[in-house]
Design a protein that fits this description.
CATH class: Alpha Beta
Helix content: 40-55%
Strand content: 5-15%
Low-confidence stretches: none
Number of strands: 7
Number of domains: 1
CATH architecture: Alpha-Beta Complex
Structural class: alpha/beta
Radius of gyration: 22 Å
Largest sheet: 7 strands, mixed
């Protein structure tokens, strides 16, 4: 049995409940489709990491979590559960604590907002836990896209201003107070705001296989936007030419 665990924290991609900060640039339905693409790609990348237990933990009741897992066609390596806790910190703590109690020596949790991070970066996080208590993947918005640990450090999930730009800084201060060693992965960005759509499109335009489902979604979005733009464009006016002999 593996002593490492890889968790994917996810929400059910329903319109109006995911990627809400993309509203305006996207409709609620499109935002849900973007969320679904990010989830599919994150699961795909996680599934390529060998030698660890795979968990999908969903912020939903167990029946909805099971339905989501079925729709993703997860293979037999995956286990499905629900996130437990009143806030993100409590949910992180519950997940890590349960896996350490089950005998895991390394636990890594990723979200779905950075689906292009890839298998190698997750493996690098596992390696860094050989020499550090905690590993973090900082994101451009002041949070983090990955957190891993080789022992319980509950302080890093307590009294953190979740969903703000202060998350990463507050977590570093918590690590220092706990006397825990840590290492950092490369800084990245989340697909979270309208401006991130163009940045993700440029990134995946160079290598769509980093997040193929999201790349397809963004390409279809571009084509749809171009089609609607052409429909709105007024037809070109025909220029009248004078016939010879007319003044």
């Amino acid at each position: 049995m593996s002593h490492s665990a890889l968790l994917v924290f996810a929400k059910v991609p329903e319109p109006g409940r995911v990627k809400t900060r993309l509203f305006g640039a996207l409709t609620p339905q499109q935002a849900a489709e973007a969320g679904r693409a990010c989830l599919s790609d994150t699961v795909l990348q996680a599934g390529r990491v060998a030698g660890c237990r795979l968990w999908l933990q969903v912020a939903a009741p167990l029946d909805r979590a099971a339905q989501l897992a079925n729709s993703l066609a997860l293979d037999a390596r995956w286990r499905v559960g629900v996130q437990r806790g009143r806030n993100l910190g409590e949910r992180f703590h519950a997940a890590f604590d349960s896996l350490f109690r089950a005998g895991c020596r390394k636990v890594i949790c990723v979200g779905t907002d950075t689906p292009w991070m890839g298998r190698r970066r997750i493996l690098r996080a596992m390696e860094l836990l050989d020499s550090a208590d905690v590993v973090l993947g900082p994101s451009a918005d002041g949070g983090y896209y990955l957190v891993g640990a080789r022992r319980r450090v509950p302080r890093i999930f307590r009294d953190i201003p979740w969903s703000t730009s202060q998350v990463f800084g507050a977590t570093l201060r918590a690590l220092q107070k706990a006397g825990a060693s840590y290492r950092l992965l490369p800084r990245d960005f989340d697909l979270d705001r309208p401006e991130d759509l163009a940045r993700a499109a440029a990134l995946l335009g160079e290598d769509a296989q980093r997040a193929p489902a999201l790349a397809r979604f963004l390409q279809e979005l571009k084509l749809d936007s171009a089609t609607r733009s052409s429909r709105r464009r007024p037809p070109a006016r025909r220029r009248r030419t004078r016939r010879p002999g007319r003044g």
